[in-house]
Write a structure and sequence with these properties.
The complex is a heterodimer.
Chain A: H1 14-41, E1 44-48, E2 56-62, E3 66-69, E4 74-77, H2 87-97, E5 102-108, H3 113-129, E6 136-140, E7 147-149, H4 155-169
Parallel strand pairs in A: 1-7, 2-5, 5-6
Antiparallel strand pairs in A: 2-3, 3-4
Helix pairs in contact in A: 2-3
Chain B: H1 13-36, E1 40-44, E2 57-64, E3 67-71, H2 73-91, H3 97-106, E4 114-117, E5 126-130, E6 137-138, H4 148-154, E7 161-168, H5 172-184, E8 189-194, E9 200-202
Parallel strand pairs in B: 2-7, 7-8
Antiparallel strand pairs in B: 2-3, 3-6, 4-5, 5-9
The chains are: A alpha/beta, B alpha/beta.
């Protein structure tokens, strides 16, 4: 009986290679997906520092398509901004009626500058016409991602913080 | 005598090496992506506008093309005034507003960063155009101790100056970095966002209506 020649038996790494190829494919897919999510949907957390909330801010986001009023999430298209009544003018009316405790903050996205210019002008004229000027301001936000707000701190505590800060720094 | 040649075996070892390395790198990339996939935080300080501090002078920077440039409006006004005066002296006659506008169109008036034009024949305002050749500094360069922006801030005092940023829509990131540095040094700051192509027109009364926020 002939004996088998065992010297030609080798370990094949081909199955291991195919497993590795599958892992590579899966990882590439995962990384692409996560990068797309990270770039597109990263939330912007708006935080008020101690000096920022002397009055309760009412936020309006200036986007390319119009104004997004927070926290209701109501969108006022740019072409409807000059037509009254609209949600933005309603918000201005509320702020003007409570100008001692509220202020308007426009959050400007890079593609929302046209909306910002229009809404700023409307707000300024509104304050002048009603003879009830109110505080307003603006800040730059990033292009991508929805906005999440932190609960505004207690206005009374914030006022105290502002006074302290001004007393020490200026 | 003949030599018996064994066929060379096909080995996957080197290919396997490469694939293993690729997998290792991808695992590291995946870990990095997971660690970085967190929310962007934006701190709102006190963005309500208010008049700038009394007895302070405005210093303007323009954030454009993801870089920052010093816009010295007072110096540009002086340069354009001197240029027009010199021309009048050389010609030994007065010039009409229309001639003045054409003169500024024909000649390259300004400094190394901005060119000056006359946007309105009837007015005294100036249109300041950022030159294509202007270099400025990017958001990483301003972090270096030797940066021109930092040097400029170091020469100013919060007691006598406040900083105003004109921000183009391509340079919000640049603006946030530059503003942070100015606030850290105690300056009051203000900003105005502008479309990429919107002209910068400065009149003699340009100081009115521009407000600070911090």
């Amino acid at each position: 009986m002939a004996r088998r020649d065992r010297s030609h038996l080798t370990v094949s790494l081909f199955p291991f290679l195919s497993v590795l190829a599958c892992v590579t494919g899966t990882l590439s897919f995962m990384i692409s997906g996560m990068t797309a999510v990270a770039l597109g949907d990263t939330e912007q957390l708006i935080e008020l520092t101690e000096g920022g909330a002397k009055k309760t801010p009412r936020y309006v986001e200036c986007r390319s398509e119009g104004l997004l009023i927070h926290p209701q999430g109501k969108l006022v298209p740019l072409e409807k901004l000059s037509k009254t009544p609209n949600a933005y003018v309603a918000l201005l009316t509320q702020i003007a009626a409570n100008s001692e405790s509220q202020c308007l903050i426009l959050l400007v996205r890079p593609d929302g500058i046209a909306s910002y210019e229009r809404s700023w002008k409307v707000a300024q004229e509104f304050g002048k016409n009603k003879k009830r000027p109110f505080d307003m301001g603006s800040d730059a936000i990033y292009a991508a991602g929805p906005i999440r707000f932190e609960t505004a701190p207690d206005p009374a505590a914030a006022t105290k913080a502002v006074d302290t800060q001004q007393g020490t720094s200026k | 005598m003949t030599l018996r040649r064994h066929p060379l075996p096909l080995t996957h070892d080197s290919f396997l090496d490469v694939v293993s390395n690729v997998v290792g790198v991808l695992v590291l990339v995946a870990i990095a992506v997971i660690l970085n996939a967190k929310d962007i935080k934006i701190d709102l300080g006190a963005p309500v506008v208010r008049p700038p501090p009394k007895a302070t002078t405005r210093v303007i920077f323009e954030c454009s093309r993801e870089r920052i440039f010093r816009l010295d409006d007072a110096a540009l006004h002086t340069i354009s005034h001197d240029f027009a005066s010199r021309y009048v002296t050389e010609q030994a006659r007065t010039i009409t507003p229309m001639e003045r506008q054409r003169l500024f169109d024909r000649s390259d008036v300004g400094n190394e960063l901005y060119r000056v034009r006359i946007p309105d024949v009837r007015g005294s305002s100036l249109q300041l155009e950022l030159r294509e050749t202007a270099v400025g500094e990017d958001s990483l360069q301003i972090l270096e101790p030797t940066s021109a922006y930092r040097t400029e801030l170091a020469q100013l005092s919060p007691a006598t100056h406040w900083i105003f940023f004109i921000v183009r829509n391509d340079s919000f990131e640049m603006f946030r970095g530059a503003r942070q540095l100015a606030i850290e040094r105690g300056f009051s700051v203000g900003w105005d966002p502008k479309q990429r192509e919107a002209p910068l027109i400065f009149g003699n009364d340009a100081r009115d209506g521009i407000t600070a926020q911090w």
